[in-house]
Design goal:
Blueprint lengths: L1 H13 L1 E8 L2 E8 L3 H9 L16 H23 L4 E3 L4 E5 L5 E8 L4 E8 L5 E9 L25 E2 L5 H5 L15 E5 L6 E15 L5 E16 L11 E3 L7 H7 L6 E6 L4 E6 L8 E8 L2 E13 L2 E3 L3 E5 L6 E4 H13 L4 E3 L9 E3 L12 E5 L4 E4 L3 E5 L6 E6 L1 E4 L4 E2 L1 H4 L2 E6 L4 E6 L56
Parallel strand pairs: 6-12, 7-11, 18-27, 19-26
Antiparallel strand pairs: 1-2, 3-10, 4-5, 4-14, 5-6, 7-12, 8-10, 9-10, 10-11, 13-14, 13-28, 15-16, 15-29, 16-17, 16-18, 16-22, 20-21, 21-25, 22-23, 24-25, 28-29
Helix pairs in contact: 1-3
GO molecular function: aspartic-type endopeptidase activity
Keywords: Signal
GO biological process, one term: proteolysis
């Protein structure tokens, strides 16, 4: 408060009108207080609106100056509110994201592009940059599959959209986007891309196009805009992309020039920041331009120019009643289904966690994770040690959902739980499951990662908004994903009935 009062008083004392008079070869500048007779007479002579004036109190009295300070403090408050009212955008269909267990335990969003518009259900990842859609397909995932349930997909066609433009190798956009691993053969040829992902033998390749992306402005998303963006026309997909991982496209939310948040920030539509919320029930939210809140925790982003990612420095772990000083760098990646830790960190976390668990550890190589624990017959709740990462700067990153529940195929009852982390030779990745229960803010402008426990429903709506206000809502290429609700169980901090996880343990996009 002292700092604020000093600023307000300075603003009050020096807010004045300047009269300039030329005297010989020099300028003479006279300062007059805004409430002086000189300023009042000048304003009246210019026909200007009457100035606010502290008329209720005698000039020079204590009450007179209190009234001035109250007035200027109100102006400051209004100014601060205007500065804070930055534009937030989300996808026109909705800002809601859905975690699909059957589609790789990744978060998906409905994204609308083209003229006429088409909607695609794309996987979201902060571990890569390019946004691509199955397009002019020569090798793509099927449009329907028993694995998709009742979801029906479509593909993007450059010929079907009147606003689609192919990016050539000679285009400045192709150079700006660093060609994304493509191979240009001539200035007029298509600006190609080819990206290999961490999942074995999984890739996407094709060429870059520009088309309009539909966005909703504000927390309600009622103001729909169109903005041109560059994305990949994915003609060839391989590996997991031909099955149940991102079958309808992938949106990279990374730092490079080719990512959608970078393009939106460069256009001046948003501040260079966005947030993702991960709810316990599998729903979530994505908001471009969101800088978070003043009460969130933060830590610096460690960004390597040669390999830019959302890395943070971990300087220790708190596991139950044990505190470590283990330090490592971790990538925060919403495109990793589960958290991955390098062997040394993995062993330390799992050993300390297991030592504080009361249930018996299960030794079964067929289970999806190495550290699993058996529930006794009739057990209705489970208590496990809390896990927190101590980040650079001292903020605690809380892991609110470190376990998955094992469900009996015979009677669909909980029979055990696992610590949902995977070992790696060298990688440290904070994945989707360790982000659950948080709103995570990727503030690239300030180079900080922010987070706050959040249920994703507190202030935002998941209403579906039409793209054309004068017409009905567009028919999406994929049916709207059904809401996911947690199974009713007395076990705290559990997820819904767990399907076979083994096919998805290595997902990292």
């Amino acid at each position: 408060m002292a700092s604020f009062n000093s600023s307000a008083l300075l603003f009050l004392l020096f807010r004045a009108t300047i009269f300039t008079v030329v005297v010989g070869d020099t300028f003479q500048v006279d300062f007059h207080h805004r409430f002086s007779d000189k300023v009042r007479q000048w304003a009246e002579s210019q026909g200007l609106p009457a100035l606010w004036h502290p008329k209720k109190a005698p000039k020079g009295s204590v009450e007179y100056f209190k009234e001035l300070i109250r007035h200027d403090r109100a102006l400051f408050s209004r100014h601060d509110r205007l500065l804070a009212a930055t534009d937030v955008y989300n996808f026109a269909a909705s800002n809601e994201t859905i975690n699909f267990p059957s589609l790789g335990f990744l978060h998906y969003a409905s994204v609308t592009v083209g003229t006429p518009n088409q909607t695609f259900l794309v996987a979201l990842t902060t571990g890569s940059d390019l946004f691509w859609l199955p397009c002019n397909c020569k090798m793509c995932a099927p449009l329907t599959s028993p694995s998709y349930g009742d979801l029906e997909f479509s593909t993007y066609s450059t010929n079907a959209s009147s606003t689609s433009k192919t990016i050539s190798c000679g285009s400045s956009q192709c150079n700006l986007l660093n060609n994304q691993g493509g191979n240009c053969t001539g200035m007029s040829s298509n600006c190609s891309y080819a990206i290999n992902y961490s999942i074995v033998n999984t890739s996407s390749s094709g060429f870059l196009v520009e088309d309009v992306l539909y966005l909703g402005k504000g927390s309600t998303g009622t103001d729909i805009i169109q903005t041109p963006i560059v994305f990949g026309c994915g003609e060839f997909q391989t590996g997991a992309f031909l099955g149940t991982v991102a079958p309808n496209g992938l949106m990279g939310l990374g730092i490079a020039n080719v990512s959608v948040p970078t393009m939106l920030a460069r256009k001046g539509l948003i501040t260079d920041s966005f947030s993702m919320c991960f709810s316990i029930d599998g729903s979530g939210r994505l908001n471009f331009g969101d800088e978070g809140s003043s009460d969130q925790s933060e830590t610096p982003l460690t960004i390597d120019k040669n390999l830019p990612h959302y890395n943070i420095s971990i300087e220790g772990m708190v596991i139950g009643n044990i505190t470590t000083k283990t330090s490592f760098t971790a990538l925060v990646n919403a495109g990793a289904a589960f958290t991955i830790l390098a062997n040394q960190v993995y062993k330390e976390l799992t050993n300390i966690f297991t030592a504080q668990v009361t249930e018996t550890q299960i030794s079964d190589p067929t289970l999806p994770f190495e550290y699993c624990y058996q529930l006794s017959s009739g057990q209705t709740e489970v208590s496990f040690p809390e896990v927190n990462f101590t980040t650079k700067g001292g903020s605690q990153f809380p892991v609110l959902n470190p376990i998955v529940i094992l469900i009996s195929e015979k009677n669909q009852r909980p029979v055990g739980y696992c610590l949902a982390v995977q070992p790696s030779n060298s990688k440290n990745i904070i994945g989707n499951n360790f982000l659950t229960g948080l709103r995570v803010v990727f503030n690239r402008e300030k180079k900080v990662l922010g987070w706050k426990p959040f249920d994703c429903y507190s202030t935002e709506s998941s209403t579906i908004h039409p793209i054309d206000k004068n017409a009905s809502a567009p028919s999406p290429a994929s049916k709207a994903p059904p809401p996911i609700h947690p199974e009713t169980t007395q076990l705290p901090r559990t997820k819904s009935s767990a399907p076979d996880l083994s096919h998805f343990l290595s997902i990292e996009l």
